[in-house]
Design goal:
By secondary structure, the chain is mainly alpha-helical. It is about 45% helix and about 0% strand. Among the domains are: about 110 residues, no CATH class; about 80 residues, no CATH class.
């Protein structure tokens, strides 16, 4: 074949190409391959294609790649595929991608993968995906990721997923995220987690959540936290809760907060507890509040009520049980909005009305009867 000029090769017909012995095809140069008309490319046999050296494969043009029959594509070796120019790879059709042998996927380069049209990914299967090198996966762009079938996503290995650029994760759909293997979720990096669209989290299940490393949980942003299903919040470990940025806490909705259990209480930091809003505090389960340490309860109290006058902030708080004596110390001006904001204090007192202290006539609270506050007793906190 060395004696043929590119101009002569350009005149080849499919029948002529098909008659060439494999040994002759092995002598093709890149410029000769590039000169072949697409119709002639369609005449290649599997034996001929197998004989093409990688350096000759590098001469393929996009229009030629589109003409390759599936039977020929099934004979691609990793070395041959790796030699294809990214622009040529971009011409692959879904049925051609589906015909590629698994071992050929090991030859993908990142720039080749990034050149594939999104529609081609619908033919990817888990076995093909598993063969991709992590270095190649780094070439994914958002549009391609959004086109991946859930079955292919299920084939992601932890090493491959860790190589995905954060920008590409922004295209994940709920059904794709739900298909991720648990061991792959465990490899998420903080910047990857923070890039996932909030709507994708509706498919996260408790097992996937439990697999998240605390370091990854630190990547959550408020919008994502607000989109978490309550069942997923219930699956958080104390270590994961401890890693949540305090700025994300106010995004929790009441239905999510109600799913928090006493076993998770010790994972909350003082900064996180101080970030709870009054509306959120009302939704906290009694058992959770009772499981907090005195220091944690103080942080939650301070966050809900806000800065307190010195006499009140100096008071100590300790858990009591429903039905015990309620020791109330009322000092001039100290009730203010404290009792109204802090739900454990919004309780019907257990002392007889006759023993209740007289209303404090202070300008800040002279219209408040402390013994007629909302009767919503929860295992509570008392002021000494």
């Amino acid at each position: 074949m060395a004696g043929f000029t590119p101009g002569q090769v350009a005149g080849f017909k499919p029948g002529q190409v098909g008659e060439l012995p494999p040994a002759a095809v092995a002598g093709f140069r890149p410029e000769q391959v590039g000169a072949l008309p697409p119709a002639a490319i369609a005449g290649f046999t599997t034996d001929q294609f197998a004989a093409l050296p990688p350096e000759a494969i590098a001469g393929f043009r996009p229009s030629q790649v589109g003409a390759l029959p599936a039977a020929v594509i099934s004979g691609f070796t990793p070395e041959q595929f790796s030699a294809l120019a990214p622009t040529a790879v971009g011409a692959f059709k879904p049925q051609q991608i589906g015909a590629l042998p698994i071992e050929a996927f090991a030859g993908f380069r990142s720039e080749q993968l990034g050149a594939l049209p999104p529609k081609a990914f619908v033919a990817f299967n888990p076995e093909q995906f598993a063969a991709l090198a992590p270095e190649a996966v780094a070439g994914f762009n958002p549009t391609q990721v959004g086109a991946l079938p859930p079955a292919a996503v299920a084939g992601f290995t932890p090493q491959q997923f860790a190589a995905l650029p954060p920008a590409a994760l922004g295209a994940f759909k709920p059904q794709q995220l739900g298909a991720l293997p648990v061991d792959t979720v465990a490899g998420l990096r903080p910047e990857q987690l923070g890039a996932l669209p909030p709507k994708a989290f509706v498919a996260f299940n408790p097992e996937q959540f439990a697999a998240l490393a605390p370091e990854a949980v630190a990547g959550f942003n408020p919008t994502q936290v607000g989109a978490l299903p309550p069942a997923a919040v219930a699956g958080f470990t104390p270590q994961q809760f401890a890693a949540l940025p305090p700025a994300a806490i106010p995004a929790f909705k009441p239905k999510q907060i109600k799913s928090i259990s006493p076993d998770q209480a010790q994972g909350f930091t003082l900064e996180q507890l101080a970030a709870f809003t009054p509306k959120q505090e009302k939704a906290l389960p009694e058992a959770f509040v009772n499981a907090l340490s005195p220091e944690q309860q103080q942080a939650l109290f301070n966050g809900v009520v806000g800065p307190l006058p010195t006499p009140v902030s100096a008071l100590q708080f300790e858990p009591i049980s429903k039905g015990s004596d309620l020791d109330v110390l009322i000092q001039g001006g100290l009730l203010d909005q404290t009792v109204l904001k802090w739900s454990p204090f919004r309780a019907q007192p257990v002392l007889p009305q006759a023993l209740a202290p007289a209303p404090v006539m202070d300008t800040a609270i002279d219209t408040i009867d402390p013994w007629s506050l909302v009767p919503a007793f929860s295992d509570s906190v008392v002021m000494h």
